[in-house]
Each structure stands twice: as structure tokens, then as C-alpha cells.
TrEMBL record:
CDD domains linked: GT4_PimA-like
Domain (Glycosyl transferase family) ranges: 179-352
Enzyme Commission (EC) number: 2.4.-.-
Protein name per Swiss-Prot or TrEMBL: Glycosyltransferase family 4 protein
Organism, scientific name: Halomonas tibetensis
PANTHER family attached to this UniProt entry: COLANIC ACID BIOSYNTHESIS GLYCOSYLTRANSFERASE WCAL-RELATED, GLYCOSYLTRANSFERASE
Positions of the Glycosyltransferase subfamily 4-like N-terminal domain: 14-165
Gene3D superfamilies from the UniProt entry: Glycogen Phosphorylase B
Class of this enzyme: transferase
GO MF annotation, one: glycosyltransferase activity
Pfam families: Glyco_transf_4 (PF13439), Glycos_transf_1 (PF00534)
Keywords: Glycosyltransferase, Transferase
Length: 373
């Protein structure tokens, strides 16, 4: 078979799901596979394909996708593409139709979100019945998928996401790191406690703020600075009402001098160099990409004891805390803020775990095995 794949992502949004195809395209190319893309005109997904070196086939709207089946089949034939990979459940109807009309195609679907309800009605039996392999990005989501999807267990595979660890290795010298800390509002000698991610209710920033208030009250002599990393507007993927609520609560708690809002940043690997502790208090992560990014940067990480995060972190590589319990987060923070050697030890073990289990190269190797099976 030809080593060519068409990634379908007809989304106008921008998050981990939408970023995934362009993240793996360079590694696919390195391992001998040529990628093509199908996206909406003017979407950030289409832009990301171009930045990854792929000129996408574009559609005006999701609603017109099924009307474009003939055009897409012609494109697949002309390009010699035998593999189709969908990344959004609503795109599966298009993928399933393509396979129904051309049975030689192999159809793959990655469940990036984690299904929340059964999908065993006649439509879903037809659509998922055309899927060669469904990828679950964690064991937590795989267990839900086994119960929800009309597929036998052997067609549902856990395939952990991965990252390129190289960009997360330290690059700044002491002077550059000090300047970055100053830019983030971290006083000299203070422990920087970061929380990266979209500012939305499900990401747990509210619990983190309450935990910092408890930490300040219980350990008044500890020097620390909270750093919230993420866009502040809807255009940057955040919930503006949630941002306003966070600011108001921080003011009420008297924490304004001790919590910095960085706004949207593209330099997260470098920001990690200015952080000492990274928190991921998300209530239900399907995987936890931010967790392994922080681990790759050799940071001490505290993650929620829920969703897939316990598959990434254990007591040797970080700490877990109940997602809705500020007191548990304050306790974990107090331990790490007070012990620099513990932070160093956890960070080293965390990076070693990423290098062993969560690299992009290994992820794509496993993906290609499925494409070519």
C-alpha cells in the first residue's frame, strides 16, 4: 500500500484535538509517511496544516462535506491515498461514507475527548462499523469507549499521546532565567507555582486559587508566586466570564500581588524554565498533554487524581490531589514549595518517564503500524 494518509478535521475551534494532526505530520514524514489534510476554509486547522508543510483540501462548511464526497474520492484516487484518519466524531459520517463507497480505504478514528454516552444506535453502528481501528488516548477513555462504542475490544486500542521532549530541555542561562522570572512577576527567591492551560471552569483554576489562599494562611513564611498561563479572551480559547470570576475571587482573597496572569503565550517550553512547581487541577482530562510537557521539562507536577492523569503521575514522578479539594492541593503545594531537593528528584524522574513512555516518535511508530497492518 502507499504510505499516504488523509487527516480529516472539519473543526472551526482550536484545542488539543485540532492541534494533533499538525503535531504528528512532521514525525510521520520523518518515518516515511506523506500526509494530506481536509479542513474548513479559513480555519486554524487549515492554517496549521500549511505551517506543517501540507496544503489542505478545503471545504466551505461541515454541512457541505457530504456533498463533496465525489470531489474527495477523486482527490484520494489522484493522490494514491489509502488511509483516512478522522479526529472529530462528527467527521466520521464523512469518513464512513468514503469507506462505504470505496471499501479498499482504511479508516481510523482517534477519540480525543472521551465519550460520555453510549453510541450504539443504528447510525453509530453503521459509522463505527466502517472504522478499522479506534484509538483511545488513555486507559481511562478506553474503558469508557469499550462500553460506549459498537465495536469489539480488539478494534479499540489505547494509544498514548506523545511529545518531542527536545524543546523542553533547559536552554536559558541564569541571567535569562532571572529576566523571565522578573517578567512573570516572580520575586527573587520565591517558588514559582504555575498553572498552564485554557482558562475555563473544567481546568480547575478556581480550586487552585482557593488552595493558594489556604497555603498563604497555613504557611505565611513560605515565599511563592502563582503564575496563571493562558489566554484571557474568547478568541484565545478561554472563557471570559470564568476569567472575570477568577480575578474577582483573587481580589477578595487578597492574592492579587501573589498571582500573575501571563495571558496567551507561545513559549511554554521556556516558561517552564521559570517555574518550580506545575499544577494541572483539571477535573477530567482524557489524557493530560500539559502534564507530560511539564514532566519533560523536569518539573515537579501536581495533577488531579481523576481522569487519565493518574496514568501519567505516581508518587515517584509527582503528586496527585483530589480535584475538588483545595485543602488537598494546599497540602501538596506546601510539601513541594518547602523542599527544593524533592522538586529536583521528582522532576528528574518525571522526564525519564516521558522519555520512556510518552515520546512523539514512539506514538507515531505505533500509529504507522496500524496504518500499514
Amino acid at each position: 500500500m502507499s504510505c499516504k494518509v488523509l487527516h480529516i478535521c472539519l473543526s472551526s475551534g482550536w484545542g488539543g484535538l485540532e492541534m494533533y494532526p499538525s503535531r504528528i505530520i512532521p514525525e510521520l514524514a520523518r518515518q516515511g509517511w506523506q500526509s494530506h489534510g481536509l479542513a474548513l476554509v479559513g480555519s486554524r486547522v487549515a492554517e496549521s496544516f500549511r505551517l506543517a508543510g501540507v496544503e489542505p483540501l478545503e471545504l466551505l462548511s461541515k454541512g457541505r462535506a457530504l456533498l463533496s464526497v465525489g470531489r474527495i474520492l477523486g482527490y484520494l484516487k489522484a493522490q494514491g491515498i489509502g488511509v483516512v484518519h478522522c479526529h472529530k466524531s462528527s467527521d466520521l459520517r464523512l469518513g464512513a461514507l468514503l469507506v462505504s463507497l470505496r471499501p479498499s480505504l482504511r479508516l481510523f478514528f482517534t477519540d480525543h475527548m472521551g465519550v460520555t454516552r453510549p453510541k450504539k444506535d443504528p447510525y453509530h453502528r453503521w459509522a463505527y462499523g466502517r472504522v478499522t481501528r479506534l484509538f483511545s488516548i488513555s486507559e481511562a477513555t478506553r474503558q469508557r469507549n469499550l462500553a460506549a462504542f459498537p465495536l469489539p475490544p480488539e478494534r479499540i486500542r489505547r494509544l498514548y499521546l506523545g511529545i518531542d521532549p527536545a524543546p523542553y530541555a533547559p536552554r536559558l542561562d541564569d541571567q535569562e532565567r532571572a529576566a523571565l522570572s522578573q517578567e512573570l512577576g516572580v520575586p527573587e527567591g520565591a517558588v514559582a507555582i504555575g498553572l498552564p492551560g485554557r482558562l475555563t471552569p473544567g481546568k480547575g483554576q478556581d480550586v487552585w486559587v482557593e488552595a493558594l489562599a489556604l497555603l498563604a494562611e497555613a504557611q505565611p513564611n513560605l515565599a511563592w508566586q502563582g503564575v496563571l498561563i493562558g489566554g484571557l479572551t474568547r478568541e484565545e480559547g478561554s472563557n471570559e466570564a470564568h476569567v472575570a470570576t477568577l480575578r474577582q475571587r483573587i481580589a477578595v482573597l487578597g492574592l492579587e500581588p501573589r498571582i500573575t496572569f501571563t495571558g496567551f503565550r507561545r513559549d511554554l517550553p521556556r516558561l517552564f524554565e521559570a517555574l518550580d512547581v506545575v499544577c494541572v487541577p483539571s477535573r477530567n482530562e482524557a489524557f493530560g498533554l500539559t502534564v507530560i510537557e511539564a514532566m519533560a521539562a523536569s518539573k515537579a507536577v501536581i495533577g488531579s487524581d481523576s481522569g487519565a492523569i493518574p496514568e501519567l503521575l505516581n508518587n515517584e514522578t509527582g503528586r496527585l490531589a483530589v480535584p475538588e479539594d483545595p485543602a488537598a492541593w494546599a497540602e501538596a503545594l506546601a510539601e513541594l514549595v518547602a523542599d527544593a531537593e524533592l522538586r529536583r528528584r521528582l522532576g528528574q524522574a518525571a522526564r525519564a518517564r516521558v522519555l520512556a513512555d510518552f515520546t512523539l516518535a514512539a506514538h507515531v511508530t505505533n500509529l504507522i503500524e496500524e496504518y500499514a497492518a
